[in-house]
Write a structure and sequence with these properties.
By secondary structure, the chain is an alpha+beta fold. 36% of the residues lie in helices and 21% in strands. It contains 17 helices and 19 strands. Strands 1, 2, 3, 16, 17, 18 and 19 form a seven-stranded mixed β-sheet that branches. Strands 5-4-8-9 form a four-stranded parallel β-sheet. A four-stranded antiparallel β-sheet has the order 10-15-13-14, with helices on both faces. Strand 8, helix 12 and strand 9 form a beta-alpha-beta unit.
Length: 465
């Protein structure tokens, strides 16, 4: 038997304070709107059309420090899985998360070159008490390079600008942190005495769709002392073995393609000379392909699995238990659930409304089935079909509501998917690389995503109340 929980009370004190301030001092100018500048931005319109929240999300400094520390800890645990679970074998880990032999060969080959520093986006819900990690995308293909543009556009709204200034709130420049991590990871490939040439690269098929946005990305790199070029893998020529685009020799390839894109033999063939150039030290690759080993749902299931608990110390277990909801590979076995041994399939069918089924490697919400949105016959079919495949079951996390202005002088409660970015730590910072949120009015939506009708907003942090 399952029960339906009521949405939790709003979490954000800053959010409530901002809403109360707007209510006390309502604008009389109907053309003065918090999303006006965002809607006028060609960059933001390309990424999000006009689907913006009417205000920002607020992250207290204490929350920010805690979640960033937990994410760094999880990142290190994920990086340690080959040694802890697979006797150091990357090939065994690749097979365990569902990669095919071609993907596995490319991944393990890439791992033999250069460095791999923290870079990722954690997708989280806040359940009213703490953040819970739904997915951890560890890759260079993260999106979010417009995050700070949303912050700046929102600050054109005077009531928000005054509130942010009075409470000493801040925001982090996600693209700046990405570039800093790229510089650190690809230091050996960077030239002396001139701006590096960085190609933002996707597959031929993907670039036909996302090319305009990647061209914006490449142009924005100029703000960070980088000459950016956007292209697909097929645009490279290799005079003297070095990737070149339109006569410009490339110093670093900023990778936007994913392992799921490389099952196509044509894409794999176009990648081959690039990997050779990387191995010969003629170009840097950011980030290495083996980042994808750690940024998938399967590795989260390995951290959550009770059979691995003796591999972690007390502090590591406390972090896992605090931030990661129960997550298991879909296998015909018994497993621990809340201190009791349960049959995986029987548990999944009996607790359909408390579980979500996810493929281990796909991105962007593809292949996800939320048990509470499926009818019983569909759910049984999906779970049984997933058995022994590259799928995990994860405990449902119910996000707490967050107060947001409704654009008409009142407020409404939204349910947020937080995207918190992590980069390499700096001399004076903890590696927080900014964030954004996707908001929905439906607490029972399967996935709070843009594809599911969500609207997007920026994040300000600090100013504990």
């Amino acid at each position: 038997m399952t029960t339906t929980s009521l949405p939790k009370a709003p979490r954000s004190r800053l959010g409530r304070a901002y809403g109360e301030e707007l209510a006390r001092h309502p604008s009389t100018d109907h053309t003065d709107h918090p999303t006006a500048a965002a809607r006028e931005s060609a960059t933001l319109a390309l990424a999000y059309q006009d689907r913006f929240l009417n205000g920002p999300a607020f992250l207290s400094e204490a929350e920010r420090r805690t979640v960033v520390a937990d994410l760094h800890a999880v990142y290190e645990l994920l990086r340690s899985l080959p040694e802890r679970v697979f006797d150091g074998s990357l090939t065994a880990l690749a097979a365990a998360v569902g990669m095919d032999p071609l993907q596995s060969a490319l991944i393990t080959r890439s791992a033999r070159t250069g460095a791999l520093l923290p870079l990722g986006r954690a997708d989280l819900y806040h359940d009213g008490a703490e953040f819970k990690l739904l997915e951890f995308n560890i890759t260079s293909a993260l999106g979010g390079f417009e995050n700070a543009d949303i912050n700046r556009a929102m600050l054109a709204y005077p009531p928000l600008e005054e509130f942010v200034r009075r409470h000493a709130l801040r925001y982090q420049d996600t693209l700046g942190r990405m570039v800093r991590t790229m510089y650190a990871e690809c230091a050996a490939a960077l030239p002396a005495g001139r701006a590096p040439v960085v190609a933002v690269v996707d597959t031929v098929d993907n670039f036909a769709v996302v090319g305009p946005r990647l061209q914006v990305f490449a142009a924005k790199l100029a703000d960070y002392g980088v000459e950016g070029i956007a292209c697909d893998l097929g645009a490279f020529t290799y005079p003297n073995g070095r990737p070149t685009v339109s006569g410009r020799a490339v110093d670093v390839v900023f990778r936007y393609f994913l392992p799921e894109d490389l099952t196509d033999p044509a894409s794999a063939a176009r990648l081959e000379p690039l990997l050779v150039a990387v191995e010969q030290g003629k170009v840097g690759l950011f980030s290495r392909l083996d980042a994808e080993l750690y940024g998938n749902k399967g590795t989260l299931a390995m951290l959550s699995d009770e059979r691995h608990r003796d591999l972690f110390d007390a502090a590591e277990l406390a972090c896992i238990d605090r931030i990661l909801p129960w997550t298991r590979y879909v296998r015909p076995r018994t497993t621990d659930r809340a201190g009791s041994q349960v049959d995986m399939l029987a548990h999944a069918l009996a607790h359909q409304r408390e579980l979500i089924l996810k493929p281990t490697l796909l991105h962007g919400g593809k292949g996800i089935v939320a048990g509470w949105t499926a009818d019983p016959a569909e759910w049984e079919h999906e779970v049984t079909s997933a058995m022994n495949g590259p799928f995990v079951l994860q405990r449902r996390v119910r996000p707490a509501s967050e107060p947001f202005p409704d654009g008409a002088g009142g407020s409404r409660e939204l349910f947020l998917n937080w995207g918190i970015y992590l980069g390499a730590r700096g001399a004076e910072d903890d590696g927080y690389a900014g964030g954004f949120v996707r908001g929905s009015t439906d607490p029972a939506v399967g996935v709070v995503s843009m594809a599911g009708g969500a609207t997007v907003g920026c994040v300000f942090h600090g100013g504990d109340l």
